[in-house]
């Protein structure tokens, strides 16, 4: 098997993450449209804008290491988005769908937090100082987005989802 350098693994993960963020910019508007809770819709809309900024920030990371920005299909994100799409097909708009979509969105955030955490650590090890700064900025945004979603769920969406809930089918 071909032995890869850490620099190559970093670049590979960077491309994967670039693709993941771009997939997300296409998927989030649909999630916002399906949201009933105004707070949830606002959180998603805000994170959509942030995600567009993160795509640009990743382009700066590519530039900082002298590479052309290029994506590599992120199967993980595709799977997570696919599951969210399935939820939107299976449920009518309402608090139950909101609760399920918040969980799906938090899975996305945790996936991204893991990716950016590793990218930060590798950039640090590789001495890519500019990349470290850029990646850390996004890592913090993802953590804040995750916390915001927890807040939205706790501030009424889960409670409302219980109202009128029957036994699961
Ligand atoms: Fe992101």
Structure description:
The structure is a single chain. The chain has a single domain (6-154), classed as Up-down Bundle (Ferritin). Helices cover 82% and strands 0% of the residues. It is built from 5 helices and no strands. The protein has helices at residues 6-34, 38-64, 75-90, 95-126, 129-162. Helix 1 runs parallel beside helix 3 (75-90) and helix 2 (38-64) runs antiparallel to helix 5. The radius of gyration is 18 Å and the shape is elongated. The structure holds fe (ii) ion. Fe (ii) ion binds at residues 21, 51, 54, 112, 142. Fe (ii) ion (FE2) is lined by residues 21, 51, 54, 112, 142.
What is the top-level CATH class?
Answer: Mainly Alpha
Count of runs of 4 or more consecutive helical residues: 5
What would the average pLDDT be, to the nearest integer?
94
CATH architecture label? Up-down Bundle
Amino-to-carboxy terminus distance:
49 Å
Category from helices, strands and their pairing:
mainly alpha
Write out the CATH superfamily name. Answer: Ferritin, core subunit, four-helix bundle
Quick one: overall form?
Answer: elongated
Which residue ranges are poorly predicted, with pLDDT under 50 across at least 5 consecutive positions? none
The count of strands amounts to 0
């Amino acid at each position: 098997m071909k032995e890869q350098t850490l620099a190559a693994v970093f670049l590979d993960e960077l491309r994967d993450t670039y693709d993941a963020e771009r997939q997300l910019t296409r998927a989030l508007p649909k999630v916002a449209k399906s949201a009933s809770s105004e707070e949830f819709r606002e959180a998603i809309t805000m994170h959509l804008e942030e995600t567009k900024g993160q795509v640009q920030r990743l382009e700066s990371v590519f530039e900082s290491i002298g590479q052309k920005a290029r994506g590599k299909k992120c199967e993980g994100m595709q799977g997570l988005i696919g599951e969210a799409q399935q939820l939107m097909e299976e449920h009518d708009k309402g608090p139950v769908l909101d609760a399920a979509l918040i969980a799906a969105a938090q899975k996305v955030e945790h996936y991204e937090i893991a990716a950016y955490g590793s990218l930060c650590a590798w950039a640090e090890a590789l001495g890519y100082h500019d990349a470290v700064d850029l990646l850390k900025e996004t890592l913090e945004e993802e953590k804040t987005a995750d916390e915001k979603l927890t807040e939205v769920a706790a501030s009424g969406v889960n409670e409302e989802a219980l109202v009128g809930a029957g036994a699961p089918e």
